[in-house]
Specification:
alpha+beta; Alpha-Beta Plaits; 3 domains; six-stranded mixed sheet; binds ligand C2E
Length: 359
């Protein structure tokens, strides 16, 4: 289980741990990003946590600790705990607010019942009374009216506070939801967001009889690239490819995501495979024609290329079938020499790649 970061930060040793975490990051040449800081706080403050064990594994392998590794460790051990904590806190705040409003409503209801009874008994007592008694009864009534009015004001102000607090909670939960759906390295939608969007998009396409196309993309020879240039440069390449795919795959109703390590996916609702092919070819050409530099030494990194597989969703197919068809086309691109895009033939019984576009 991962330790709750808040309990680390609220402990009397918080400053000591924060200093140790920064020292450890400096020793191991890890950038002090917010995410790394969180991970390394776990490392120094919760030595027996899974996060610490993961970091130890990387350190003992002699590998340099990269942003990609941080992302992977955090994705595995932190977001669920963070999300659960956030939701738990939001739930607690919400139920506190609702308790206090229902208490105020109860008090207001009791006062107003009492007021009704006072009015009823006053109207009976008015009959046959002298002036002084009537004055005393009117004073009683007006004091009861003031009380009802004051309690209504308290209730109104509590309702206004609750509405504000609910607005803040909603915005906060929305941010948490967005974070949980975003890949922190590339800032594209993550796999979870992709799975949900793909499921919905396929159901919508089936309901409306609309076209839907899916493209899956893989960076060619990424592992060799990482081994040659290091994970940090590998992370930069992922960011670069994500920036191009995010731009082209983010137009209109399209949806771009980081599907896995060096794999990306773009959903094209309402667009045919030839349009998706043209868009992905634009991305492929843009990526392969840019010369990236290794930032620390300014060396040329050689050509970065991508391979793509594209499939149209067939009405009634499960999302997994469309993904599999696009994957099949991607592997056809790989087999035919990479740096190209292939279309799956969705009319055939078994979905085999039909056409290819290459450099
Ligand atoms: P980043 O380094 O955070 O850069 C974000 C954006 O700032 C870049 O988006 C680009 O528009 C601009 N930018 C940054 N540095 C320069 C520069 O030296 N010259 C110019 N003209 N613009 C610059 P872009 O190009 O889409 O790249 C997105 C990310 O891809 C970058 O994020 C970086 O992580 C990676 N990347 C892009 N090109 C290179 C490269 O040549 N070498 C390395 N190592 N990474 C790169």
């Amino acid at each position: 289980m991962s330790t709750d970061i808040d309990s680390i930060l609220r402990s009397p040793k918080a400053y000591q741990w924060a200093r140790k975490a920064i020292e450890a990051m400096e020793t191991h040449k890890v950038w002090p990003t917010a995410l790394n800081f969180e991970l390394w706080l776990h490392y120094v403050a919760a030595k027996d946590s899974e996060v610490a064990a993961e970091i130890d594994t990387v350190l003992s392998s002699g590998e340099h600790f990269t942003d990609q590794m941080s992302e992977e460790i955090a994705a595995q051990h932190l977001p669920a705990a963070k999300l659960n904590g956030e939701i738990l806190n939001a739930g607690k705040t919400l139920s506190k607010e609702l308790d206090s409003v229902s208490r105020a409503v109860r008090t207001a209801r009791e006062t107003s019942n009492l007021y009704g009874q006072q009015l009823a008994s006053a109207s009976e007592s008015f009959q046959g009374q002298d002036n002084d008694s009537v004055r005393a009864m009117v004073e009683n009534l007006s004091s009861a009216t003031r009380k009802v009015h004051e309690e209504n004001q308290v209730l109104e102000s509590q309702l206004a506070d609750t509405t504000d607090e609910l607005g803040r909670l909603r915005a906060h939960l929305e941010q948490v939801r967005r974070d949980a759906m975003t890949d922190a390295l590339t800032m594209l939608a993550n796999r979870k967001a992709f799975d949900e969007t793909m499921e919905r998009a396929c159901a919508d396409a089936d309901d409306t009889d609309e076209i839907l196309t899916l493209a899956v993309v893989d960076i060619d020879h990424f592992k060799t690239f990482n081994d040659t240039w290091g994970h940090q440069t590998g992370d930069q390449v992922l960011r670069y490819v994500a920036s191009v795919i995010g731009r082209i795959g983010g137009e209109g109703a399209r949806f771009a995501a980081r599907y896995g390590g060096e794999e990306f996916a773009v959903i094209f609702p309402g667009e045919r495979s030839d349009v998706a092919l043209a868009a992905m070819e634009q991305a492929r050409k843009e990526i392969s024609s840019r010369t990236l530099k290794r930032r620390s030494t300014n060396e040329d990194l050689g050509a970065i290329t991508i391979s793509t597989g594209i499939a149209e969703h067939r009405r009634g197919d499960q999302p997994a079938a469309t993904i599999e068809a696009a994957d099949g086309a991607l592997y056809a691109s790989k087999r035919s020499g990479r740096n190209r895009s292939s279309l799956a033939d969705m009319t055939a019984q078994s979905q085999v790649p039909a056409k290819q576009a290459a450099a």
